[in-house]
Amino acid sequence: MTVESTAARKPRRSAGAKSTAGKRTTAKNAPNAEPELVQLLTPEGERVKSTEYDKYVVGVTPEDLRGLYRDMVLTRRFDAEATALQRQGELGLWASLLGQEAAQIGSGRALRDDDYVFPTYREHGVAWCRGVDPTNLLGMFRGVNNGGWDPNGNNFHLYTIVIGSQTLHATGYAMGITKDGADSAVIAYFGDGASSQGDVAESFTFSAVYNAPVVFFCQNNQWAISEPTEKQTRVPLYQRAQGFGFPGVRVDGNDVLACLAVTRWALERARSGEGPTLVEAYTYRMGAHTTSDDPTKYRADEEREAWEAKDPILRLRRYLEVSNHADEGFFAELETESEALGKRVREAVRAMPDPDHFAIFENVYADGHALVDEERAQFAAYQASFADAEGGK
Ligand SMILES: Cc1ncc(C[n+]2csc(CCOP(=O)(O)OP(=O)(O)O)c2C)c(N)n1
Fold first, then answer.
1. What is the sign of the dihedral through the CA atoms of 59, 254, 107 and 125?
2. What's the whole-number mean pLDDT along residues 219-236?
3. Does the beta carbon of 226 sit less than 6 angstroms from any atom of ligand 1?
4. 3 state DSSP class of 351
5. How many angstroms separate the alpha carbon of residue 53 from the centre of ligand 1?
6. Is the CB of residue 99 less than 8 Å from the CB of residue 313?
7. d(C-alpha 70, C-alpha 75), whole Å
């Protein structure tokens, strides 16, 4: 059974949301821009028809939808556990994906096993879709491994913190796929802030010129730490693609079904030799940039509250309920599964060794380096300065 549209009545739109079928609005910072938003599920959980993108989700069954919901719920549960573990001193840092579950699960579930993913440091939902065990991600944030998984095991590259650099790696990998004559594709994740990096512009140029099978998936979560998107661009980000010679589209990043459809479309283009696509998933970082950040210093509570009304999990739940695709038993079982995941992750992290504070100085240069030696000595002296505070331990 396939999923029917429940939008026999005219779709309602929430404040700020613009569907492709609806009225165009002009971004206040971009006089000539007319941003459109691909949306298949409204924040109220109503199915919106799309002449262009419905065909990419036509085979999505109620079971598939429950699967997408489960992915998002478990990812959010895992993410909440990781934030708590950082607060308890078990992790050095955590970069929460709260609010971005639909963008990541929708795009992640559009991929084939032989496709290759280049993530940033926030793609926990995509890692989940690729089968990377969540505890492996946490080992890196605890400082006890240098990545924690074999990139080739799941075709999921290591987390990349050098902003935007992975788009170049993705482009090179995609060019290699073409040379191999394969029909797999590459997806590169990056943020709105990264879009200002030269690396991203270079990867757009190369991928366009070489017709590389790569999907640039930009999660515009509105903030690059404390910098708002209007400080990154004068035009909607997806429109940048046009200048490089390939299509760009803005999708409602809190709508998992639309993210699935749009990513499938972009991957299909890549596979069929049509080259790169820029997908701008318009979403919101509901939490802090990382656990080292305090967003109350630079953004208003009302902004977050407005986005909470567009919560990606809530909207799919509403759709599942109204269309009778999931019953109370399903939600209850998922709750139990979520708690079990939290417990498993918690126990696994607590069982991990403490990080070796000096490991950071290793593997920088094969033969060592005077500057690294100096820094190591400085750090040793700094640590020794706490000896008294710890009772001479
Ligand atoms: C090349 C480089 N410059 C600066 C930084 C510091 N930095 C870390 S995250 C970040 C903001 C990234 O914002 P965005 O690309 O929007 O992604 P988000 O964190 O919002 O997901 C910056 C500037 C870095 N890691 N790498």
1. negative
2. 97
3. no
4. coil
5. 31
6. no
7. 8
